[in-house]
Design a protein that fits this description.
Strand content: under 5%
Order of helices and strands: HHHHHHHHHHHHHHHHHH
C-alpha cells in the first residue's frame, strides 16, 4: 500500500477508537469502587452487589461474537455508533436507578452496548491501517489503552465518589459517549464484509448460550463451589452447546466463525496467549487491590492510585512491543513477555504482611512489563491472520478470550486464595472472620486493643499465605503461556488459512 493511498485521518481515527475502548474497559472496573456506597444507598444484598458487577460481564462476554459478526455484515461504523448509544442510554438509567434490581437490568443493557463497541474498535482499526507495520503499531497503542484503562477505573471511581453521588460513576460515561459519537461520525470510514454473507442465526444463538453458561459457571463457582451441581451443570451445558456450535459452523455454508481459522497457529496460539495473559492479569489485579486495602491499610481510592504505575508501564511498553516485533519476531516478544510476567507474579507471591508498597511496586513493574509486551503482539497476530473482511469476528474472538480468561483468573485465583485463607486461620475464631478477611478486620476493629491486634495479625498472615499460593499458580499459568508461544506461535506472520472460499489471503504481518 502506497503512502499516498493511506487514509490521512487514520491516526485521528485511532484516537476515537481508543477513546471508545477506554469507556468499555473502565466500566469493567469503575463500579467495584462504588459497591459499598451502592449497598448503603440502595439497600442491596451481597448477592445483588455481585450481579451489579456480573450482569455487565455476563452479557458483554456472551454477545461479543454476535456483535462482531453483526458489525462485519451491516457495517462496523454503525455497530460502533449503535453500541455507544446503547451504552450512553443505559449508563444514564443506571445513574438514576432507585433499586438494585433496576441497576442490575441497566448494567446488563450496558453489556449489550459494550459487545457492539469493543469488536468494532479493533476491526475498524484493522481496516484503516492496511500496512502491516503501521497496523502492528496501532494495535499496540490500542492494547496499551486497554491495559491503562484497567487501572484508571478504580482511581476515577474513587475520585467521583468523594466529590459526587454514587450514580456519577455511570453518569460520567455520557460525555465520553457524546465525544466519541461526534468524532466518529466525522472521522471513521464505513467498512463491512464485501461478500455480505447470510446471517448465521443458529450459530449466533448457540454461541450466546455457550458463552453465557460458561461465564455464568465461572462467576458462580467460587460461591457455589467448583464441584457443586449448579456449577457442573453450567459447565456441562456450555461444553455440549459449544460442541453443537462447532458442528454447526463446520456444516453451514456461510458460518459465523470459520473453524478453519484455528488451524492457523498464528491465530490459535495467539488466542491461547491472550487468554492466559488475562487470566494472570485480572486474577493478580483482583488480589493486589485487596492486599493494598486489607494488609497495607489503604482506602479504595488510595489503592487505585497506587495501581496507576502499572498503567504507565503498559502505555510505555505496549507501543514499544510493536517495534520489537519488527526486529525479532512475534514468537520472541510474546514468549519473553509471558515469561517476564510469570517472574513478576512469582516475586509478588513472596510478599509478606510486613512488606511495603515499594516492595509491591517493584513486582508490579516487572509483571506489567511482561503483560504489555504480550498483549499487543498477540492481538496483532490474531488480526493479521485474518482477511480484512472478517475483522469483526476476529476482533470478537480476541475480545472473548480476554473476557473469559479474565473472569476465569478472578474466579480461580480468588477461590485458591479463599481456600488457603480459611484453612490457615486458627480454630476458635468467629465463623465470619474465618471466611473473609474483610469481616475479620471489621471484627478486629470492634474487639479490644489486644484481641483486635491478634485477630488482625492472624487474618493478615492467612490472607498473604493465600495470595502467595494463588499468585504462584498465576505464575505457572503465565509460564505455560510462554511455553505454548515458543512451541506453536510462528515467529513471523503468514497467510490466512481457512475453509471459507470467499475469504482472501491476509497480508503477512511484518514481524
Amino acid at each position: 500500500m502506497t503512502v499516498e493511498a493511506r487514509d490521512p485521518k487514520r491516526w485521528w481515527v485511532l484516537g476515537v477508537l481508543c477513546f471508545s475502548l477506554l469507556l468499555i474497559v473502565v466500566d469493567n472496573t469503575i463500579v467495584n469502587v462504588a459497591l459499598p456506597t451502592i449497598q448503603r444507598e440502595l439497600n442491596a444484598t451481597t448477592n445483588e452487589l455481585q450481579w451489579i458487577v456480573d450482569a455487565y460481564i455476563l452479557v458483554f462476554a456472551g454477545l461479543l461474537l454476535t456483535g462482531g459478526t453483526l458489525g462485519d455484515k451491516f457495517g462496523r461504523k454503525g455497530a460502533l455508533a449503535l453500541g455507544l448509544v446503547v451504552m450512553g442510554g443505559a449508563s444514564g438509567l443506571s445513574a438514576l436507578a432507585d433499586g438494585a434490581g433496576q441497576l442490575i437490568a441497566t448494567r446488563a443493557v450496558m453489556g449489550v452496548g459494550a459487545a457492539l463497541v469493543m469488536p468494532a474498535t479493533l476491526s475498524i482499526l484493522t481496516n484503516v491501517f492496511e500496512d502491516p507495520v503501521e497496523r502492528g503499531r496501532a494495535i499496540a497503542i490500542w492494547a496499551g489503552t486497554a491495559g491503562m484503562a484497567v487501572a484508571i477505573g478504580p482511581v476515577t471511581g474513587g475520585w467521583l465518589l468523594e466529590q459526587f453521588w454514587w450514580g456519577s460513576v455511570f453518569f460520567v460515561n455520557l460525555p465520553v459517549v457524546v465525544v466519541a459519537l461526534v468524532a466518529g461520525a466525522r472521522l471513521i470510514p464505513t467498512s463491512r464484509d464485501p461478500h455480505n454473507p447470510r446471517l448465521d442465526v443458529v450459530g449466533a444463538l448457540l454461541s450466546v448460550v455457550a458463552l453465557v453458561t460458561l461465564v455464568w459457571g465461572i462467576i458462580e463457582a467460587p460461591d457455589k463451589g467448583w464441584l457443586s451441581a449448579p456449577t457442573l451443570a453450567a459447565f456441562a451445558v456450555a461444553a455440549v452447546v459449544l460442541v453443537a456450535f462447532l458442528w454447526w459452523e463446520r456444516r453451514v455454508e456461510e458460518p459465523m466463525l470459520d473453524i478453519g481459522l484455528f488451524r492457523n497457529a498464528r491465530f490459535s496460539a495467539a488466542s491461547a496467549a491472550i487468554t492466559l495473559t488475562f487470566f494472570a492479569m485480572f486474577g493478580s489485579f483482583f488480589l493486589m487491590t485487596q492486599y493494598m486495602q486489607f494488609v497495607l491499610g489503604y482506602t479504595a481510592l488510595e489503592a487505585g492510585v497506587r495501581m496507576t504505575p502499572m498503567a504507565a508501564v503498559m502505555m510505555v511498553f505496549a507501543p514499544t512491543s510493536a517495534r520489537l516485533v519488527e526486529k525479532v519476531g512475534t514468537k520472541a516478544v510474546v514468549g519473553a513477555g509471558m515469561a517476564i510476567a510469570g517472574v513478576g507474579l512469582g516475586l509478588t507471591s513472596l510478599l509478606t504482611p510486613d512488606s511495603t508498597y515499594l516492595n509491591l511496586l517493584g513486582t508490579m513493574v516487572v509483571m506489567s512489563t511482561g503483560m504489555a509486551l504480550t498483549m499487543a503482539p498477540a492481538t496483532e497476530s490474531i488480526m493479521g491472520s485474518l482477511p480484512p473482511a472478517k475483522a469483526g469476528v476476529g476482533s470478537a474472538v480476541n475480545d472473548t478470550t480476554r473476557e473469559v480468561g479474565g473472569a476465569l483468573g478472578v474466579a480461580v485465583l480468588g477461590s485458591v486464595m479463599s481456600s488457603v485463607y480459611t484453612s490457615t486461620m486458627p480454630d476458635g475464631l468467629p465463623a465470619a472472620a474465618r471466611e473473609s478477611i474483610g469481616a475479620a478486620m471489621a471484627i478486629a476493629g470492634q474487639a479490644g486493643e489486644a484481641p483486635g491486634r491478634v485477630l488482625a495479625a492472624a487474618a493478615s498472615n492467612a490472607f498473604v499465605d493465600g495470595i502467595g499460593v494463588a499468585l504462584l499458580i498465576g505464575a505457572g499459568i503465565a509460564g505455560l503461556g510462554s511455553v505454548i508461544t515458543w512451541v506453536f506461535l510462528p515467529a513471523r506472520g503468514h497467510d490466512f488459512v481457512g475453509d471459507d472460499e470467499t475469504t482472501e489471503a491476509a497480508e503477512p504481518a511484518v514481524a
